[in-house]
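A student in our group prepared the protein record below, which I am reviewing. What it holds is a sequence and that sequence's fold in token form. My question to you is simply how this chain folds and whether the tokens agree. Do not assume that whoever made the record got everything right. I have pasted the whole thing underneath without changing anything:
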Amino acid sequence: MVTVRALNVLFTLSSFTGLALSIYAFIVEQAAEKDANYKAMCDINEFVSCTTVFKSEYATGFGLASKFLGKDSFFNKPNSLFGMAFYSLLIVFAQVDSKPFAILNLIFSTLSVWLSVYLAYLLVFVIRSLCVICAGTYLVNIINFASSYYKFKKLSAPPAKVQKSKKKKA
């Protein structure tokens, strides 16, 4: 049986992976911005290219901030910066074994899965490129969702009854 502690470890490791992927994405974005010929390790061919995705209009503000809030909006920042803040917050939340924090983790993880679906749609049908870093964060979000769901279930379950010994004193 999986314990809450094991779920915390899984969630924390997964969130650290998401944080590392977000940091790497930010580094690639910055390098590609400075050098038009930059080729990242995740650029395998024309179709599998992180740099292509990170240079797209959807790489900042999730492609929504500039359309609704303008190009100068505070929210029109690289998605990787949001990822760094998001996964850092999740790492902190994962350390608290309380039902309210389990609910927060579940809500944030659910939202991140829905955002992953949106971004995956953009990758496949709009940008028409595959980003292994992006796919990695989608996997992280699925793992975080599953572990936060099971942690919430465990913390919401009624405590197990302790059976008293039925031996009679002789």
Remarks:
- The helical segments are 4-34, 50-54, 65-69, 79-94, 99-127, 132-156.
